[in-house]
Design a protein that fits this description.
The protein is mainly α and 325 residues long. 70% of the residues lie in helices and 4% in strands. The chain contains 13 helices and 4 strands. The protein has helices spanning 23-62, 80-91, 93-125, 131-143, 146-169, 183-194, 196-208, 212-220, 225-236, 238-250, 259-263, 274-284, 292-320; strands at 2-4, 11-13, 65-68, 73-76. The strands form 2 sheets. It has a two-stranded antiparallel ribbon with strand order 1-2. The protein has a two-stranded antiparallel ribbon with strand order 3-4. Helix 4 (131-143) packs across helix 7 (196-208). The two termini are 50 Å apart.
Length: 325
């Protein structure tokens, strides 16, 4: 840009105007971004420190202690409590059964619960015939009290189904919950069924965010609904899919399978899962201070086992999962 000065009569070349920030401006902007970032993560970090670390600090410390009757307090004993906890799980058959049931419940939740929720979410997302009915039926357990749902479900499978079978086929059958061979499977079915609601809400929301142009382009090429689900929908909601798998694996040994709602603290040992056993042990020994270190050691033991498995599953699913459509 050239400017002719009237004072000197000489042409003077002016510097071009730019919007490039100065070094000081870059530092100031970077400082503001760091302050904003710190302010955003301050609250969740503070909540984690207060409501997890501080609250659980004494529980973690209890695992290395033992209650002394004479002094009326806890004394440090190192890893002796862990040794007793590990030995108890290998020597008590009902605890071995509880571990197996917890793993079975987690596997069923991943295969049946996850597969079914993705399928029904896709059915609702595509607005096929009866999709609204499915949506209400599958989400209803999530908005009704779990105790009320257990009462209705138990009445249906304990009285309704046996009576219907007797009238139709003239054969007397035992209630499904109280049956020796059907009790665990029935309660596990209920646990998976009541978990459909949040999953369908989560997956349906993820599916509705898919660009319609992608789906329309595939439909013009003659894609079938199942191929659309497998090659388009699932890859585009993969992160949501991974999140549910990780949460399920992480909660393997804390899932109670609604056993307490069905049986209070009186479930048969063969139906135990680890989450139910730990809850009942604490609930039933609320005044037995000598049991707390043992139960705390068991909780930490399962946490130590679960953490690396959870991170491994998360790593493998992100590494070998679909990256793009």
């Amino acid at each position: 840009m050239v400017n002719t000065s009237t004072d000197t009569g000489k042409a003077t070349m002016l510097r071009p105007v730019t919007n490039k920030p100065t070094k000081h401006g870059v530092k100031k902007q970077s400082r503001k971004q760091k302050i904003f970032y710190a302010a955003m993560i301050a609250l969740p970090v503070l909540q984690f420190v207060i409501f997890y670390i501080v609250v659980n600090f004494n529980s973690i410390l209890l695992a290395f202690e033992e209650y002394n009757v004479e002094s009326g307090g806890y004394v440090l004993v190192g890893f002796d409590t862990f040794k007793n906890a590990i030995g108890d799980y290998f020597s008590q058959s009902y605890l071995v059964k509880a571990i197996g049931n917890s793993l079975l419940l987690s596997a069923a939740s991943l295969v049946v619960g996850l597969g079914g929720s993705v399928f029904f979410s896709f059915y609702i997302y595509k607005k096929y015939f009866g999709s609204k009915v499915f949506k209400v039926f599958l989400f209803l357990p999530s908005i009704i009290s779990s105790v009320a749902m257990v009462l209705m479900f138990r009445y249906f499978v304990e009285l309704g189904i046996p009576e219907a079978i007797e009238k139709l086929f003239g054969k007397e059958v035992q209630g499904l919950v109280s049956g020796d061979k059907t009790g665990f499977a029935t309660v596990m079915f209920f646990s998976i069924w009541v978990g459909f609601g949040p999953l369908i809400l989560m997956f349906s929301g993820a599916m509705t965010s898919i660009s319609p142009s992608v789906v329309e382009s595939a439909q013009l090429d003659g894609i079938t609904p199942m191929k659309e689900l497998w090659f388009i929908t699932l890859p585009l909601i993969w992160e949501t899919f991974v999140t549910y798998v990780v949460v399920t694996v992480a909660g393997t040994f804390i899932n109670q399978m609604h056993l307490f709602s069905f049986f209070s603290g009186n479930a048969e040992p063969k139906m135990y899962v680890v989450g139910y056993y730990l809850y009942c042990a604490i609930y039933g020994n609320a005044t037995t201070l000598s049991q707390y270190p043992f139960l705390s050691a068991q909780g930490i033991m399962f946490t130590i086992v679960t953490i690396p498995v959870t991170f491994l599953v998360r790593y493998l699913m992100r590494k070998f999962g679909p990256k793009e459509v």
